[in-house]
Amino acid sequence: MKRLALLALLAGGALLGERYLVAEAPVRACARFLEAWGKEDTPAAAAMTTGEAARKSVEERILRGVCRVPMEALRGSRCSLEARTTRPDGDAVLTMRQVVAFDPPGMTTGLGGAMAASFRHAITMRETPEGWKVAAFEPTFLDAVATRRR
After folding, report:
1. How does pLDDT run across 111-129, given as a tens digit for each residue?
2. Dihedral angle, C-alpha 149, 104, 33, 22, nearest 10 °
3. How far lies 39's CA from each of 18, 49, 127, 149, in Å?
4. Which of 34, 101, 103, 124 could form a disulfide linkage to 136, CB 3.0–4.6 angstroms apart?
5. How many CA atoms lie within 13 A of 133 on its CB side?
6. What is the spatial distance between Cα 33 and Cα 105, in angstroms, rounded to a whole number?
7. Beta bridge partners of 126
8. What is the set of domains in the chain, with CATH numbers?
9. What angle do CA 137, 142, 144 make, to 5 degrees?
């Protein structure tokens, strides 16, 4: 009975480890990319791409160019996975939602930002010898809402 319980525990640990190391690897790489994009660190975000088209897309679609609301100071971002599919060639196609906190001109907060902009990103991740990289990037601005009362 003890051996059976130990075997079940080891199998469960192996399954969780496989999920974290293999299945979630493109999502973690995408989250790092979106963190750099949300900080307007274009060189760092472009370094996480593979191929000229993806690099050019990142350089042309900077945060303040995609967002239709004036931003003065960035206050951080968070992202979440909305959908994921895997192509036969191994590429992972992710739909990610990102919320970027910011202060608009004339309104300064110490923490958290006075507004939050929401984006939906269509991102194709490709496994390369250097790890998972962005092969295609299409950001879409959804809305911006106030997070603080005046």
Report:
1. 777 899 999 999 999 999 9
2. 10
3. 31, 16, 24, 25
4. 124
5. 18
6. 26
7. 133
8. 2-146 (3.10.450.50)
9. 125
pLDDT digits (tens, 9 = 90+) for 28-58: 999 999 999 999 999 999 999 999 999 999 9
DSSP, collapsed to helix, strand or coil, labels residue 51 as coil
Distance CA 37, CA 42 (A): 6
Count, residues in the chain: 150
- Which is nearest to 96 in space by CA: 123, 67, 62? 123
Q: What is the distance between the alpha carbons of residues 139 and 57, in angstroms, rounded to a whole number?
A: 9
Distance between alpha carbon 136 and the CA centroid of its chain, in Å? 13
Helical residues (DSSP H) of the chain, grouped into ranges:
2-18, 25-38, 42-47, 52-60, 63-66
For 118, what's the count of Cα atoms within 13 Å in the CB-facing half-sphere? 8
Q: What is the DSSP string of 57-126?
A: HHHHS-HHHH-SS--SEEEEEEEEEEEEEE-TTS-EEEEEEEEEEEE-TT---SSS-SEEEEEEEEEEEE
Q: What is the pTM of this model?
A: 0.82
